[in-house]
Amino acid sequence: MKELENNIKKIKDSCLKELKKARSLESLEEIRVAYLGRSGALTEIMSTLKTLSLEQKRTLGPDLNELKKQLHDAYESRVSEFEKKNLSSDALFDVTAYKPHQMHGSLHIYTHIIEQLTEIFISMGYTIADGPEMETEYYNFTTLNIPDDHPARDSHDTFWLSQPDRLLRTHTSSVQAHSMEQATPPLAIFAPGRCYRNEATDASHDFMFTQGEGLFVDTNVSMSQLLATARTFLQHFFGKEDLKIRVRPGYFPFVEPGVEIDGSCPFCSDGCSVCKHTKWIELLGAGLVHPNVLRANGIDPEKYSGFAFGFGIERLAMIKYGINDIRLFHSAHIPFLQQFA
Ligand code: FA5
User: Fold this and answer.
1) Model pLDDT for residues 290-306, shown as the tens digit of each residue
2) Atom from ligand 1 closest to the CA of residue 311
């Protein structure tokens, strides 16, 4: 009898303790089954009552019934605590709540600019091309008539990767060879994309920036076609029909002759701060595709010729929108970005 009473006390204490410690409705249910369920500890003890004497039954019977009720009440009260808690967290979530100054996401200026550029080139019959940002020396330099020992390699401040013969492309001119490999002339591609140079950053230089590259290869391609294309593109981009261009000699190993193309300042006719009072702004590097580049990509330079041009996309956007620091582009500076929403 004494042992039975001890067991009953143990069951009571451990059940109440476990109910108190329970952290979920699931564990409460497990405790209920373990003590009050059909083969639970308390139920089993109750079933031994029948083996006791009448007098013992009279003493223990009501006690066990009282304990059963007590444990059941303790269980119910913990369940309702959990239910209340869940209800109150649901109540905090009001799907109809309206937050008056909610911030809206918007397209990034890169997306806007690249869309503008691609639309212009598509309207001129160009295809949009893409190439890898992690390049080989071959596509970034060698096939572009920049052999191993060429000094132009130094001017590109290359990020070399730890994998052999892998680098982050320094310009989108690397897409030229990929495109020529995939198609036979005539071909007209425009390739916008990210480039990397291991340079100190300042208001007009970044270590990561974007360029746009144009390439046109056909029979009898001439400098006048290049200039007409450049002018048409710049007039559309700046929304200025009377924008003029001027050409200066320039050197890029993959074009011959090479030129730098300036545009007349889209904001003034007699000098302003944008053009540094010169009335002209440097906009594109360009030229006729070097015969070595055509040859390296399986195109006969006796039969075909081409032109190529390239420019910094941020620099064009900075001129168009009066942005004074290139680092703002990937600064995640919300007030800056919202201006282009
Ligand atoms: C080139 O990269 C040539 N591939 C362009 C080209 C293509 C010439 C086809 C001829 C024919 P350059 O190194 O000058 O050229 O870079 C072109 C433009 O990229 C620059 O005028 C500038 O607008 C932009 N650019 C270059 N370096 C940076 C930099 N660190 N940060 C931001 N923009 C840059």
Assistant:
1) 999 999 999 999 999 99
2) 18
The Å distance, Cα 246 to ligand 1 centre, comes to: 18
How do residues 69-97 score in pLDDT, each as one tens digit?
999 999 999 998 888 877 666 556 677 77
Q: Are residues 224 and 315 in the same domain?
A: yes
Strands (E) in the chain, as ranges, are 127-128, 134-135, 167-168, 187-196, 208-218, 245-249, 255-264, 280-289, 305-312
Pocket test for ligand 1, best of 143, 157, 252 (most atoms within 8 A of CB): 252
CATH of the domain at 195: 3.30.930.10
Ligand 1 neighbour 285 (Cβ under 6 A): yes
Task: Please report which residue ranges of 93-151 form alpha helices under DSSP H.
Answer: 109-123, 137-140
Distance 197 CA to ligand 1 centre (A): 10
263 with 172, same domain? Answer: yes
